[in-house]
Recover the amino acids of this structure.
């Protein structure tokens, strides 16, 4: 990709675009905004390629870029999380699936930021704890703590529903 190989870049985008789109969709108001954030993630990655060094996985770097874009999106638009009543954000399924997804999504949106981020990366993006630690720039013990606390908060919120 550094040498301008478009095929390499296309393969890279195909490999990670779905993951970045799903990640952004958990953080923004609607699907179109999530698409914009995912595309911006790849644009920023490409623009930073000359300075990028292979200290970790490129996927972790993409998550870092996407996470920063999502945080900036929150600040700019005064939003926090997805609209819990937009069933289009969750794909298709039976009415019960949509309601369940809406309830979980609403509870997820009500979590503290640091817990929500770890829960999304671990459960919805299927990342290992060490990968999450790299992305967030924290230690694995703190990731484990945030996962435990986030699950406990989610359990309490779901019981309230």
């Amino acid at each position: 990709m550094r040498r301008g190989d478009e095929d390499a870049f296309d393969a890279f985008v195909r490999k990670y675009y779905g993951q970045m789109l799903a990640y952004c969709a958990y953080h923004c108001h609607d699907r179109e905004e999530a698409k914009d954030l995912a595309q911006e993630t790849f644009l920023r990655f490409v623009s930073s390629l000359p300075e990028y060094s292979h200290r970790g996985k490129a996927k972790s770097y993409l998550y870092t870029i996407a996470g920063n874009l999502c945080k900036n999106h929150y600040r700019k638009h005064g939003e926090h999380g997805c609209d819990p009543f937009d069933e289009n954000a969750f794909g298709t399924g039976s009415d019960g699936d949509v309601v369940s997804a809406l309830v979980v999504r609403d509870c997820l949106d009500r979590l503290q930021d640091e817990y929500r981020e770890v829960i999304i990366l671990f459960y919805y993006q299927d990342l290992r704890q060490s990968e999450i630690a790299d992305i967030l720039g924290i230690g694995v013990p703190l990731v484990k703590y945030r996962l435990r606390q986030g699950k406990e908060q989610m359990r309490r919120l779901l019981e309230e529903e």
Q: What stands out?
A: The chain has a mean pLDDT of 81.
